[in-house]
Amino acid sequence: MLPGAIATEFWNTAGTPVEHLPTEWVMSAEDLVDAALAGLDQGEFVTIPALLNAADWDAFEAAREALLPNLSRATPAERYTVAGA
User: Fold this and answer.
1) Greatest CA separation found in the chain?
2) Mean pLDDT of successive 10-residue segments in the chain (85 residues)?
3) pLDDT at 1
4) What is the dihedral of CA 35, 38, 40, 45, to 10 degrees?
5) Are 4 and 24 in contact (CB under 8 A)?
6) DSSP state of 17
7) What count of Cα atoms within 13 Å lies in the side-chain half-sphere of residue 16?
């Protein structure tokens, strides 16, 4: 699936006319802007106009935040060390 396809002239420049994409993937630029502005008005930090359930974003963000303390360390995680080394 191609997420976030917006009907703009960019697709022609990129070599794949928007008309070649499945219509259920393509949002109009007007709908995108209206939805994004509505999300910002509702206090959303990130707006994803096609995302049906805002709780999905909240779950993603919670998982990302849980990873943060473990993404940068001076040594590899134990599962990556050679046994007996």
Assistant:
1) 60
2) 77 90 91 94 91 93 94 91 71
3) 44
4) -60
5) no
6) -
7) 8
